Automatic annotation (TrEMBL):
The keyword RNA-binding applies. HAMAP family: Ribosomal_uS13. Keywords: Ribonucleoprotein, Ribosomal protein, RNA-binding, rRNA-binding. The keyword Disulfide bond does not apply. GO terms for cellular component: cytosol; small ribosomal subunit. Pfam families: Ribosomal_S13. Transmembrane segments: none annotated. Residues 97-126 are annotated as: Disordered. This is Small ribosomal subunit protein uS13. Coiled coil: none annotated. One of its GO terms (molecular function) is rRNA binding.
Length: 126
């Protein structure tokens, strides 16, 4: 028996709090809040959830929380908006540089990509 919420299979042998974090957009604290609101013990394993518990969780998530594709598209739209208005963060996104004030002289290889070697000018000989 597998448990699916919005197209994602949750691991059935993990606790409920950890199982919900497999959904994009739900972290540990949000999963605790969801289970507390719905009234399910957070230490209860996913396989122990009844159909009623599962339907409560699905209903709560669909009504109050953006997850998976909807959240990803909203984030992409926000980044595109920042690039269109030409603000500082938008220009950093466009150039592929770090956004939040990090130094770029030595580090930030994750954001900049692999090193691109720049050749030196050759000296003119007489």
């Amino acid at each position: 028996m597998s448990v699916r919420i919005s197209g994602i299979d949750l691991p059935i042998y993990k606790r409920g709090v950890i199982g919900l974090t497999y959904l994009y957009g739900i972290g540990k604290s949000l999963s605790k809040n969801i289970l507390h609101f719905v009234g399910i013990d957070e230490n209860k394993k996913v396989e122990e959830w009844s159909d009623d518990d599962l339907s409560k969780i699905r209903k709560y998530i669909s009504n109050y929380i953006k997850i998976e594709g909807e959240l990803r598209s909203e984030i992409q739209f926000n980044i595109k908006r920042l690039m269109d208005i030409g603000c500082y963060i938008g220009t950093r996104h466009r150039k592929g540089l770090p956004l939040r004030g990090q130094k770029t002289k030595n580090n930030c290889r994750t954001r900049k990509g692999r090193k691109k070697t720049v050749a030196n000018k050759k000296k003119v000989t007489k």
